[in-house]
């Protein structure tokens, strides 16, 4: 518990100024979801590896930190200082370096079971009400248009193109609605489908509000 407390404190410090939707609150939810999925699946995983990966997964992400190499070195030193075994350190770093959606654009990496669960939990955070808000928040912060019917969704093939993005609404089709079929566990898959249905209902309402019935100018005096 002492090691986990230090991991939580480190995460909070690293992510306390995040304005991309990948802050400490996100890390907490990913950790909670990871724990719930592992319990539901009766997964034989190292709890420290599971929760450390969940809490720390965005502390070295290029969406969040300006210097990824420095962030990686600092995290490696931290894991060593708190007394994790070499195997635990290696597995945690492998998971958080290979679990992202953008990483899969250049080839899917086979994650250990703990990594698959954390990956599922992180992807659930991109769905449902939380996913809608985080998508809008991130898109607005990166000057992505909210919606433009003339801009069609893109099938991304590389990380650079993916990072540029297109529109907030297109992101639902470019990534978010692809996630349920990418889930590693049945527990996460079921929850992903539930969240996707909510998002589909939201989009139906959005399109209705985006394009209201035009004003009949002939009725105006």
Describe this structure in words.
This protein is elongated. It has a single domain, classed as Orthogonal Bundle (Hypothetical protein af1432). It contains 11 helices and no strands. The chain has 221 residues and is mainly alpha-helical. It is 62% helix and 0% strand. The model has no long low-confidence stretch (mean pLDDT 93). Helix 3 packs parallel to helix 7 and helix 7 packs parallel to helix 11. This is Metal-dependent phosphohydrolase. Pfam families: HD. InterPro entries: HD/PDEase_dom, HD_domain. It comes from Enterococcus canintestini. GO terms for molecular function: hydrolase activity.
List the defining traits of the structure above.
221 residues, mainly alpha, Hypothetical protein af1432, 62% helix, 0% strand
Classification by helices and strands: mainly alpha
Helical residues, percent: 55-70%
Largest sheet: none
Distance between the termini: 73 Å
CATH architecture: Orthogonal Bundle
| Count of spatially separate domains | 1
The helix-strand sequence is HHHHHHHHHHH
Q: What is the name of the CATH class?
A: Mainly Alpha
Question: How many β-strand runs?
Answer: 0
**Which regions have little confidence, pLDDT < 50, spanning 5+ residues?**
none
Query: Which band does the percent of strand residues land in?
Result: under 5%
Report the CATH topology name: Hypothetical protein af1432
Radius of gyration: 19 Å
- Total helical elements: 11
Mean pLDDT: 93
Q: Indicate the overall shape.
A: elongated
């Amino acid at each position: 518990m002492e090691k986990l407390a230090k991991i939580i404190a480190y995460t909070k410090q690293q992510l306390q100024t995040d304005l991309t939707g990948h802050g400490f609150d996100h890390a907490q939810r990913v950790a909670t979801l990871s724990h719930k999925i592992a319990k539901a699946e009766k997964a034989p995983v190292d709890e420290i590896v599971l929760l450390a990966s969940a809490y720390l997964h965005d502390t070295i992400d290029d969406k969040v930190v300006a210097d990824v190499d420095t962030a990686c070195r600092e995290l490696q030193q931290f894991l060593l200082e708190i007394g994790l075994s070499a195997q635990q350190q290696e597995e945690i770093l492998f998971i958080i370096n290979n679990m992202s959606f953008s990483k899969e654009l250049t080839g899917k990496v086979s994650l250990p079971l703990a990594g698959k669960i954390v990956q599922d939990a992180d992807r659930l955070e991109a769905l449902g009400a939380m996913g809608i808000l985080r998508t809008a928040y991130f898109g607005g912060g990166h000057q992505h248009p909210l919606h433009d019917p003339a801009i069609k969704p893109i099938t991304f093939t590389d990380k650079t193109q993916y990072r540029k993005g297109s529109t907030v609404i297109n992101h639902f089709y470019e990534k978010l609605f692809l996630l349920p079929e990418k889930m590693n566990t049945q527990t996460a898959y079921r929850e992903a489908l539930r969240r996707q249905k909510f998002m589909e209902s939201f989009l139906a309402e959005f399109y209705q509000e985006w394009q209201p019935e035009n004003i009949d100018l002939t009725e105006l005096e």
